[in-house]
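cron nightly-structures :: item 1 of 1
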Amino acid sequence: MSEDLTPEERRAENRARHWAQRQQANVDRGPSGVTATWWDHARALARDVDRDGYPAIWEELTAALQGWCAAVEQRRQEADDQRDAADVA
């Protein structure tokens, strides 16, 4: 069957198979593995979109990651502040 595929179809089939294998291996690693799978997928999508003529996709991915990091850092700071306030009391 694979011999009937165009190079583009074969790449898509290989990518899907590889994604499924990596996803399962990462799921077996737990939550950090699942996150690694999504990170790999995000980079692959950005790379493909960039190749399709939209290089600004990297800026969009960067903005999304910066927003996520800022939110997590803020939560950590708030938790630290609460711990410090409890230690003083």
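cron nightly-structures :: done
The mean pLDDT is 93.
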